[in-house]
Amino acid sequence: MWFQKCLVCGLKRLCLQFATGRHPLNFYGSPSWFTTELLRHVKLSGVIGEPCVGHGAIASLLSVWPYTKQMWTNDIDPHLAADYHLDATLSDSWAKFPDCDWICTNPPYSEFAAPIIKNAYQKARVGVAAFLLTSFLEPCDDRADFLQQHPPSLVIIMPRFCFRKDKRGSRWATDNVTISCFVWDKSATGQQIIIRPKSAIAGFYKNPEQAISQERAEEIVQALAKLNEVIAKGEL
Ligand SMILES: C[S@@+](CC[C@H](N)C(=O)[O-])C[C@H]1O[C@@H](n2cnc3c(N)ncnc32)[C@H](O)[C@@H]1O
Q1: Which CATH superfamily is domain 26-232 in?
Q2: Residue-wise pLDDT tens digits, 38-86
Q3: Taking Cα atoms as reference points, which of 183, 229, 218, 226 lies closest to residue 33?
Q4: Does 58 sit in the ligand 1 pocket, CB within 6 Å?
Q5: How far apart are CA 97 and CA 85, in angstroms?
Q6: Atom of ligand 1 nearest to the CA of 89
Q7: Would you tell me the crossing angle of helices 32-41 and 214-232 to the nearest 10 degrees?
Q8: 30 in contact with ligand 1, CB cutoff 6 A
Q9: Domain boundaries along the sequence of the chain
Q10: Of the residues 17, 75, 80, 162, which should be mutated to test ligand 1's pocket, given the most ligand atoms within 8 Å of the CB?
């Protein structure tokens, strides 16, 4: 009887997860403009690790970014293509990942984000760039000390993106809080907040149905790299 009840509860929870688009492992693909907006403001370079790669929304664009020397990927879901399939909340897993200059990811939120970010910060030689609910700034118990000791050097506040449909599956829904790109650049000496209205974002789209093509997103990455070159040469 007890077992049957548990089974029914579990099935009900699973049905609800699928009905509301909630994924048991918190899989939500990032829109391409998350990554292109990050690259507009931060010149990631060297060896880059993506510890929660999903379907590769971030990694696929970083791999065409000319300043990326090498990439490694991980995801706890063994069905997803990745170099490693380890739990990124555990420091033991990070000891198995190769050394890297940057960690760039959109991790699962709720209680999983803080341990992943803390491990990422320890691992990265240069810094961490992560897409997190803006409320990650709140000094909750799981991250208060970390945030106090390591406040992000940059927070890029993004417009809302509808990752999934509402409970009825009829309309695109947003989270209660918008996502920001949190950057911990270990070489930075100050702190900055950048606000990005959707009108300023190349390739912006509101939900996955309106997504631009991968080719278009890669063109934006190449255009940003060219802009970097021009700036480096002092031609702008
Ligand atoms: C919000 S999705 C983002 C996927 C991808 N980074 C992107 O931006 O499209 C989070 C991903 O983290 C993975 N994940 C969940 N818990 C994890 C954990 N403890 N360790 C590693 N990956 C995890 C999920 O399988 C999912 O693919």
Answers
A1: Vaccinia Virus protein VP39 (3.40.50.150)
A2: 999 999 999 999 999 999 999 999 999 999 999 999 999 999 999 999 9
A3: 218
A4: yes
A5: 10
A6: 19
A7: 0
A8: yes
A9: 26-232
A10: 75
